[in-house]
Amino acid sequence: MILLRSLVYFVLMSLTILVYGLAAAVFGSFLPGSSVDRITTQWGRVNLWLQHWICGLRYRIEGEQNLPRLGPAVVMSKHQSAWETIALRGILRPDQSWVLKQELMRIPFFGWGLKFVKSIPIDRSAGRRSVVKVVEYGKRYLGEGRLVIIFPEGTRTAPGTRKKYGVGGGVLAERSGVDVIPIAHNAGVFWRRRGVKKYPGEIQVIVGAPISTQGKKAVEIMREVEDWIESQQEKLPLERA
Fold first, then answer.
1. What is the CATH number of the domain that holds 189?
2. Is 199 a domain residue?
3. I need a labelling partner for 220 at 20 to 30 A (CA). Which of 26, 33, 40, 186 fits?
4. What is the residue range of 53's domain?
5. Cβ count near 42 (within 10 Å)
6. Domain count of the fold of the chain
7. What pTM, to 2 d.p., does this model score?
8. Does the residue 125 lie in any domain?
9. How would you write the pLDDT of the chain (241 residues) with one tens digit per residue?
10. Would you say residue 238 lies in a domain?
């Protein structure tokens, strides 16, 4: 039954990508960027609703008061599955710019929509050049009052594991002087990084208080972000109830 529900959700999610991606591409050609932001945020919310009613997959946020309501911020999140790439789009306010791998821009419909929401596609093998791009475009979008969302580990990790945190987000935070909002969660317990099944249950999301970057170097910022996220990860369940 879990597999069947997961496959039904996958089909419907694909349809939402087609519909909302096409809408973002069409309307993005002649409407203000804020309109496309709202379209893609609605896509995230629709998928959260589908996950709930088809897969029995819910979420609970601790520290919701720390979500940035106004002004620029760099959001750094743990990356365990595809869930957070969908969910954060619906949970955070609409004006978001994501740092993402450039291959995603080539996906039909999905990639078309990404082009109109001020994404920051990078070549992960480019090293320093990718950091330069993150800083250049990130500062521009932060200057517009947007959120810049980064997965500092760069790739998905299994629950209970961690990878080296990249310094790019820290350099952006240092150069821009804006706060960092750290996010921890255990989505990988219910939605495995390479699995088809979406298990029912409640994903726990923890949003930390803003981390000030004033007077701090990039390495110091990332150490603080990593320490907070990983300390919270240790508190989250690694097994489904």
1. 3.40.1130
2. yes
3. 186
4. 2-233
5. 16
6. 1
7. 0.94
8. yes
9. 999 999 999 999 999 999 998 888 887 777 666 888 999 999 999 999 999 999 999 999 999 999 999 999 999 999 999 999 999 999 999 999 999 887 777 777 777 777 778 899 887 766 778 889 999 999 999 999 999 999 999 899 999 999 999 999 999 999 999 999 999 999 999 999 888 899 999 999 999 999 999 999 999 999 999 999 999 999 999 888 7
10. no
- Judged on CB neighbours under 10 Å (0-12, 13-18, 19+), 60 is exposed
Residue 184 lies in a domain: yes
